[in-house]
Amino acid sequence: MDQYQSVDALVIPSDDRAPHLVTLMASPMNLHSRDAPYRCGSMPHPEVFMDYIAEGLGHNAWSFHLVEALDCMTKKFATPYVIFHPIISRDGMPFPVNKFARDIQGRLYKEPEAWRGNLVIVKYRDAQYSSMTNISMADFPILKNYLSTHRPHTK
Q1: Which domain of life is it from (predicted)?
Q2: pLDDT tens-digit series, residues 6-36
Q3: Of 9, 77, 114, 149, which has fewest CB within 10 angstroms of its CB?
Q4: Cβ of 6: how many Cβ atoms within 10 Å?
């Protein structure tokens, strides 16, 4: 019988709370997908940490953004990240702008392209996304750098 997997993930709340580590659960999947977050055969559940997200939609209520390199890098990260962000709210209203991302983007910030809602970030063991691994606060400077220059997109 397959077991649920748990890994440490980073949550960057949309409000004034500080970024912090949480335990993210992932359930086993019977079907394998070519999409990066699911290649490991597990379905992560970042929605548990996303305020105001639509309930009962599972992975359809959020999207993901691959973090494989920083600007000007010539090689990809050996251990990439995935940023999960909410896309469907329970009341149909837009999610609040993520204040942390807005603040670090400074003059580059553009409201129509803003990161919104709580961001949940997971680290993968290798570039093939074969399994998730624990993230730590040591990864935070890399992710802060990435968020300062990148904006979300939907799948």
Answers
A1: Eukaryota
A2: 999 999 999 999 999 999 999 888 766 677 6
A3: 149
A4: 13
